[in-house]
Specification:
single chain, 295 residues, alpha/beta, 12 helices, 49% helix, binds zinc ion, Class_II_FBP_aldolase
Length: 295
């Protein structure tokens, strides 16, 4: 099946109040687990690779595998470049066949974020690809030095609905990542989501909204966020953590039984663990059974 861009799958989702999971991959096992989950759940899916994961695997190795597996899939797959800060890398992703890219200028002064986003929108649209930008910052405890708790409770980082409307109009961006209380990484303290703000942002812009920091929320928090306008949910930390925890359990179990294990055993477990968690999230986000709507 040809790769789709976010516009093709998210508009229907937005109108029908469900969301697509956007799952990060940093290995071939994750790619296989996600595609297997999407096919079994008959769900469209967004498979993404983050610029910050370049240390785990180079883009020119994982990118072509993502594109090839997406083309082979029996359901619509978006191949997305997540949190791009370097325009040259975004251009490389587009050349490799990615159907969607994110330009993350959220840390820049507003006018510079507008200019940078406009530039990337022009570039990506010439490839028929869609663009996600970010306004307000979800923060990342790994890079900012702040604790997850401090980031969640800092008002200054939340997206202003009026500014969101101005930003979308000026940049012509296709989807917008907004900040209303979630933060990247695993939560130390419980996040407090500002649904009123989310609702106001959704009513002030026409484009689908993206939730980053989608790991570890309750089923109710996901569903309420979708109800108030979230259509793409970035989900990685929890998934990556689950793989490590479950693989450790399996290794311990094998050791107790004196069974030898090999690296390929871990690879095969990883595919299964990813598949199971992704299918579970598709059910919660409401995209299960919606593959035909993404075509
Ligand atoms: Zn993010």
């Amino acid at each position: 099946m040809p790769i789709v861009n976010t516009k093709e799958v998210l508009q229907y989702a937005k109108e029908n109040k469900y969301a697509l999971g956007a799952f990060n991959v940093a290995s071939i096992e994750a790619i296989r687990g996600i595609i297997a989950a999407a096919e079994e759940a008959n769900s469209p899916v967004i498979m993404e690779f983050a610029e910050s994961h370049l240390g785990f695997v180079p883009l020119d190795i994982i990118g072509p595998v993502m594109v090839r597996e997406a083309e082979k899939a029996t359901v619509p797959v978006v191949v997305h470049f997540d949190h791009g800060k370097d325009v040259d890398l975004i251009a490389q992703a587009l050349e490799l066949g990615f159907s969607s890219v994110m330009i993350d200028g959220a840390d820049l002064p507003y006018d510079e974020n507008v200019e940078l986003t406009k530039k990337v929108v022009g570039l990506a649209h010439s490839y028929g690809a869609t663009v996600e930008a970010e306004l307000g910052t979800m923060g990342n405890p790994e890079t900012s030095g702040e604790t997850n708790d401090e980031l969640i409770h800092s008002e200054a980082i939340y997206t202003d609905p009026k500014v969101a409307a101005d930003f979308v109009e000026k940049t012509n961006v296709d989807l917008l990542a907004v900040s209303f209380g979630t933060a990247h990484g695993l939560y130390i303290a419980k996040p407090k989501l500002d649904y009123k703000r989310l609702d106001e942002i959704a009513k002030s812009v026409s484009v689908p909204l993206v939730m980053h920091g989608g790991s570890g929320l309750s089923e109710e928090e996901y569903k309420k966020s979708i109800y108030y306008g979230v259509t793409k949910i970035n989900y990685y930390s929890d998934l990556a953590h689950k793989v490590a925890v479950k693989a450790r359990e399996k290794l311990n179990e094998a050791a107790q039984k004196n069974i030898d294990t090999y690296s390929h055993d871990i690879s095969l477990w990883t595919i299964d663990i990813v598949k199971e968690d992704v299918m579970d999230k598709m059910q919660v986000f409401g995209s299960t059974g919606q593959a035909e709507r993404g075509m």
